[in-house]
Design goal:
The complex is a heterodimer of chains A (about 230) and B (about 425). Chain A has about 230 residues and is of the alpha/beta class. Chain A has 7 helices and 10 strands. Helices cover about 35% and strands about 30% of the residues of chain A. Classes of the chains: A alpha/beta (about 230), B alpha+beta (about 425). The structure holds adenosine-5'-diphosphate and magnesium ion.
């Protein structure tokens, strides 16, 4: 489903005449199958987010190839990448990234509007999700009127509503207390089981990583699959 | 994204910054209204001028200057020519005098082809056009020139005491004695009956005192004249010809045909064309000046849109992340600046109409107060007119300027880097 082959990325920082090169991804290869939960765990600054950004198509790596469902992302232009994301990928961010001027309902509706789904169908899909995610009672609330956990549920709703086969989550519980974290992780496991959605979860927290079927570890740009006894 | 959703999206964003957007719309409206009102003066004056020109000149009338090589039959045969009217006046020395009882007058005397004139829609105040040799038409103010000997004398001597009133009785049907003399020698004496009186000239200062005689009289006069003076007359009279077209549309083609016949011609429509060219230049100039006002307002739009993009960087990042086509993002922002342009233009159109009506109503009153002349209010002058054409031009200019000013900020929005934006 997701295949990365020899992906390397280097950031250039500092002034032009005094450039520093940072190798953030060093020959990363990885294989994720359908309906898996895979987590990538590592220290802060180890390159996890950069890896996820390349999978999402936000960043073109210096070298290597990224295939998602047989499409090579590195060959797509911006427009095709956008269309690809709309269809195949959902996103969950650490700080939720909800639209502050939109209500719960409208935030979840956004990807459907972008995709041009007709209003009646939209309503149907959203009502269903609101119930499933247990946020129907706050559907007319704005993000600043919601708790962190509720906000993350809205953000999960937005990721799910277009029915993508893959959801990428960068520190999905990074801003939540441990109890809420538990709830969200359980929800992810349930959604994976119910809908067969592939989850790629990035975390610095071993606890969080443990909900995965498989775990990769990231260390200074090196990616390795963890063996069971390593954790 | 469906079009309705796009509109909703734009409206939602506009609402979030109501005050800022409103001020930008206001600036756009002011610029656009300035353009419309300014140009409306050219449109209004042109309308007034046209009305003025067409009211007392027959628009279907074409004047021909060259007398000699005129082939009357050929001209009459041109399609849509209703009539070719000859008007002549005597160039040779001599005096034409009309006498009624003890009063007499030596007016400007015209010899007119009444048969042809009858085919035009020439209108008289009273009576009809002559049908016989001894019938004439007199000008509306001809009666004023019929003076007694004493009055005549007083007029010649610039005497302020004696009243110099003309004839006040009814003229229609009266018989005048026409005498033509040269060097005190009588050329012709004939009794003439007034069968018609011309219309009052439409211009206040115009005076019509002439006498129009049948053209056939001219030949008799010439023969007698040559006999009395014992001299052949080469330039006894001078004739002008007017062609009357069946309608305005035909004038242009007839003009061309006449010009092709090597005739020098004049039609008020040509003057109209000149006026049109002049006013087109004036309109273009005023619209240009007005456009500068809109351009100044466009700086506001540029500013507003740039701020909107900067403020929403994170949101644009999210939109791009979840799969919005960059082209759509650009379109949404261009729509937002178009929205400002359209709303500003609508307000400007309404305001301009109000100003235009007020101007047309107030200027004559102001002129009257300044000059004490009531005429300004009576003439019904149009100072400002806003035809649909002007509305279209102004809308096109201000909406395109709005869209162009929103273009760069919109492009900036599409170039936002997702990762940078999400980090905010
Ligand atoms: N746009 C960038 N320009 C330069 N350096 C970057 C950029 N993004 C990330 N980095 C650097 O790359 C390294 C990895 O960052 P990141 O992938 O965010 O790590 P993680 O998500 O594991 O904390 C860090 O040292 C970070 O400073
Ligand atoms: Mg990170």
């Amino acid at each position: 489903m997701i295949t990365l082959q020899h992906v390397s990325h280097t950031f250039r920082i500092g002034k032009k005449d005094n450039e520093q090169l940072i190798d953030v991804l060093k020959d990363v290869s990885l294989q994720i199958d359908a309906a898996e939960i895979v987590s990538i765990v590592g220290k802060s600054g180890s390159g996890k987010s950069t890896l996820l950004n390349t999978i999402a198509g936000f960043l073109k790596p210096v070298s290597g190839s990224i295939h998602i469902q047989n499409t090579d992302l590195t060959t797509l232009n911006e427009r095709s990448l956008a269309a690809f994301r709309l269809q195949h990928l959902g996103f969950i961010f650490q700080n939720f990234q909800l639209m502050p001027s939109l209500t719960t309902y409208e935030n979840i509706e956004l990807p459907l509007k972008i995709a041009g789904v007709e209003p009646r169908k939209r309503q149907q899909l959203i009502q269903q999700l609101l119930k499933r995610l247990d946020i129907a009672h706050v559907k007319d609330h704005y993000p600043n009127e919601l708790s962190g956990g509720q906000q993350q549920r809205v953000s999960i709703g937005r990721a799910l509503v277009g029915n993508p086969p893959i959801i990428l989550a960068d520190e999905p519980t990074g801003s939540l207390d441990s109890e809420t974290e538990r709830e969200i992780l359980t929800l992810i496991q349930q959604l994976n089981a119910e809908l067969g959605i592939t989850f790629v979860i990035i975390t610095h927290d071993d606890e969080v990583a443990r909900i995965a079927n498989r775990i990769y570890t990231m260390h200074d740009g090196d990616l390795k699959e963890a063996t069971n006894d390593a954790l | 994204m469906r079009f309705k959703d796009q509109i909703d999206f734009v409206r939602q964003h506009v609402k979030r910054n109501r005050l800022r957007v409103f001020m930008t719309i206001l600036a756009t409206a002011m610029g656009c209204a300035f353009l419309i009102v300014l140009a409306s003066i050219a449109f209004g004056l042109q309308t007034s001028m046209k009305k003025e020109l067409l009211s007392d000149n027959a628009i279907t009338e074409i004047e021909i200057y060259s007398e000699d090589k005129l082939d009357k039959q050929k001209i009459k045969a041109i399609p849509n020519v209703n009539a070719l009217v000859e008007r002549a006046e005597i160039m040779a020395e001599g005096t034409a005098k009309f006498t009624l009882d003890e009063r007499s007058s030596t007016p400007y005397t015209q010899f007119v082809d009444f048969e042809q004139l009858a085919k035009t829609n020439e209108k008289l105040a009273q009576g009809t056009l002559p049908k016989h040799d001894n019938e004439i038409v007199v000008g509306y103010q001809f009666a004023q020139t019929l003076l007694t000997k004493a009055q005549q004398q007083a007029l010649d001597n610039d005497d302020e005491q004696t009243k110099k009133e003309g004839y006040s009785g009814k003229l229609l049907g009266k018989k005048l004695t026409f005498t033509y003399t040269v060097d005190k020698k009588n050329v012709l004496t004939k009794e003439m009956t007034i069968v018609g009186i011309t219309k009052k000239p439409s211009r206040e200062w115009d005076i019509d005192e002439r006498v129009m005689m049948p053209l056939s009289m001219l030949a008799t006069l010439k023969t007698n004249y040559e006999h009395v003076t014992d001299n052949k007359q080469q330039d006894f009279s001078y004739a002008t010809f007017r062609v009357y077209a069946s309608d305005l549309e035909a004038v242009k083609e007839i003009l061309a045909t006449l010009k092709a016949m090597d005739l020098s011609v004049y039609s008020v429509t040509e003057q109209l064309e000149e006026i049109n060219i002049l006013f087109t230049a004036l309109k273009a100039g005023l619209i240009f000046i007005g456009t500068i006002a809109i351009l100044i307002a466009s700086i506001g739009i540029f500013n507003t849109m740039t701020m909107a993009v900067t403020e929403r960087t994170r949101e644009i990042g999210v939109m791009k992340a979840i799969g919005t086509n960059p082209k759509l993002i650009q379109k949404l922002f261009v729509m937002e600046s178009a929205y400002i342009g359209i709303l500003g233009t609508i307000i400007a159109i309404v305001v301009s109409y109000v100003i235009s009506i007020a101007v047309n109503w107030l200027i004559p009153i102001a002129l009257e107060m300044a000059t004490g002349d009531k005429a300004y209010r009576e003439v019904d002058l149009i100072f400002s007119a806003i035809p649909f054409e002007l509305v279209l031009i102004a809308s096109a200019i201000s909406i395109s300027v709005a869209i162009i000013s929103g273009w760069r900020p919109a492009r900036k929005a599409t170039n936002i880097d997702v990762i940078d934006a999400l980090r905010q």
